[in-house]
């Protein structure tokens, strides 16, 4: 096995996408194994690879890691994206938790029943524009720096960039009232590792489609 981290998940965004973003932002190449059948998933459980019977699974530094938050915290620590001291780390964690709440809504959206899709889309738009994005607009303005914490690129910046693009796919004008976030998005897009990840052909996954939803339901069916 090469020294590259090995990611096991479905061939789609889901809970692995934030991990892909973070590794890519850190300039780390990785390998992927895609689950396509329930048998593959059951075998991972039977072989004891999935501590809580859940993916994402990331094999890194001789560890088989599960639980998205733990995996990302490890990557952020390993690649110096977790702040310079305990106070910065606390701020980064706090911002990441907030963004995760918004991302959870986006994650679940493709699985909404057809009659609930419009209502759920309105909820995403409302939460983004009234609860989450105003916080980060204010943080950037008061902090007066390019990044959310200190003046160094961190895990929180990567998560916020992912969230901005994910919301924009559904609500294209969502940043119209947030000039600081517009500037932030432009600066983040030009960081070489992120610029590379945003190019066609990168490991970044497209928005979930019907085939992805169908595969998720098939692989994880009880």
TrEMBL record:
It is an enzyme of class 2 (transferase). It holds the Pfam family GST_N. Residues 85-209 form the GST C-terminal domain. InterPro entries: Glutathione-S-Trfase_C-like, Glutathione-S-Trfase_C_sf, Glutathione_S-Trfase, Glutathione_S-Trfase_N, GST_alpha, GST_C, GST_superfamily, Thioredoxin-like_sf. Keywords: Transferase. Its EC number is 2.5.1.18. Residues 3-83 form the GST N-terminal domain. CDD domains: GST_C_Alpha. One of its GO terms (biological process) is glutathione metabolic process. The keyword Nucleus does not apply. It comes from the Eukaryota. Gene3D superfamilies: 1.20.1050.10, Glutaredoxin. The keyword Transferase applies. PANTHER family: GLUTATHIONE S-TRANSFERASE, GLUTATHIONE TRANSFERASE. Belongs to the GST superfamily. Alpha family. This is glutathione transferase. The lineage of its organism: Eukaryota, Metazoa, Chordata, Craniata, Vertebrata.
